[in-house]
Amino acid sequence: MSYLSPQDRRPAFEWPNGLLILVIYGAWLTLILWYPRLPQVPATLALIVVCAWFMSLQHELLHGHPTRHAGLNRLFGLAPLAAWYPYDIYRDSHIAHHRDELLTTPGMDPESNYVDPAAWQALGPRGRFLRTAMRTVAGRFLLGPALTILEVWADIFTGPRQRGWRAVRTWAQHLVLLVLLLWWVQAQSGISALHYLFGIAYPALGLAMMRSFHEHRPAPEPGHRIVVNDAGAFWRLLYLNNNYHAVHHAEPALAWYRIPALWRAQREQFLSGNGQFHYQGYGRLLWRHLFTPVDSPVHPGFGDPETPARKGA
After folding, report:
1. Distance CA 215, CA 279 (A)
2. How far apart are CA 223 and CA 276, in angstroms?
3. 66 preceded by cis ω (within 30°)?
4. Across residues 2-15, what is the average pLDDT?
5. Three-state DSSP class for residue 281
6. pLDDT per residue as tens digits for the range 79-126
7. CA 311 remoteness from chain centre
8. Model confidence pLDDT, tens digit, residues 164-218
9. Is the pTM of this model over 0.90?
10. Which of 83, 160, 219, 222 could form a disulfide with 100 if both were Cys (CB 3.0 to 4.6 A apart)?
11. What are phi and psi of 300, to 5 degrees?
12. Do 117 and 297 touch, CB atoms closer than 8 A?
């Protein structure tokens, strides 16, 4: 089902997204160049926010913005400002995530935060603690980036066996660009590689991961697995309106700046379609689950294509 009219076509170049690219890169560059003259803590916090914002931009780019040419869009997202995620790996993983019938299913949805019951039984106390902690805000922010980094960077060893030369090229390109970026940043600002990686890029990844803390849940109906979060202006801009996640999944090619209008115009249809999976902002959600799990990390089985979906739950 499409929520857009047939005449609602994308332009060849989206100027708001072109401006967004200039603003994000410009903000990052300005903070790096002025870093020695700024108070260190505010400057570091600003860089954390900008790097998290850049990850939201990468999400926009991989969905076909600001141009109709995927190769050109890719060039805008290759710079490793956020350090940990090679753009091509994120793109491939996220596109696979957009199979709504498999959302949250362990082993099938690459962005699932859940484990199947058999895997849960096989985990020891430490593994169960980590999985449960990841369902809290504190655990997701503090531990989530580390687990994600370990999983992604393991691809350096497993990727060439699975994807051959393409994986080698992806990692070689990313590592070369990352080394050059870290060298240039230290030369211009005095920010060491360790400080950039773990004092800026690491918490930036944690901040980015707050958006997806509970944006999906297991449910019998695929549409009921996708949240809408009526967030405030700061969060909407930081996440480029991806907080209206049910709208994004319904129209993944819709530019971020057009999402709110579609949400306002068809609010009731979206809430009916997602089973009223709705939050009024991030503040209450994040505070309530700072140390309390938002749900169980064990997946109940919905979404397994080999198991008939249960109805009415």
Report:
1. 10
2. 10
3. yes
4. 71
5. coil
6. 999 999 999 999 999 999 999 999 999 999 999 999 999 999 999 899
7. 30
8. 999 999 999 999 999 999 999 999 999 999 999 999 999 999 999 999 999 999 9
9. yes
10. 222
11. -80, -5
12. no
Q: At what angle do helices 15-34 and 165-189 cross, to 10 degrees?
A: 50
Task: Answer whether 174's CB lies under 8 Å from 74's CB.
Answer: no
3 state SS of 111: coil
- DSSP state, residue 277: -
At what angle are helices 165-189 and 87-97 packed, to 10 degrees?
A: 120
Q: Report pLDDT for 291.
A: 97
Closest by CA position to 273, among listed 309, 219, 310: 219
pLDDT value for 1: 58
Longest dimension (CA), the chain: 61
Read off the tokens for 242: 């991806």
For 148, list phi and psi in degrees, rounded to 5.
-65, -45
Q: Is 22 exposed, middle or buried (0-12, 13-18, 19+ CB in 10 A)?
A: exposed
Query: What is d(CA 55, CA 81) in angstroms, rounded to the nearest whole number?
Result: 9
Q: For the chain, report the end-to-end CA distance as a whole number of angstroms.
A: 23
Distance CA 105, CA 300 (A): 9
Reported as half-sphere exposure (CB side, CA atoms, 13 A), residue 53 has a value of: 20
What is the rounded average pLDDT for all residues in the chain?
A: 93
Residue 7: count of CB within 10 angstroms of its CB: 5
Q: Which two tokens stand for residue 276?
A: 């009223």
b/e map 132-169, b = 16+ CB within 10 Å:
ebbbbbebbbebbbeebbeebeebbeebbeebeeebee
**Paired tokens of 59:** 């999400």
Task: Report how far residue 149's alpha carbon sits from residue 105's, in angstroms, rounded to the nearest whole number.
Answer: 21
Residue type, 142: L
| Residue 112, amino acid | S
Q: Decide: 98 and 53 in contact? Cβ < 8 Å.
A: no
Output the six-digit token pair for 82. Answer: 């956020």
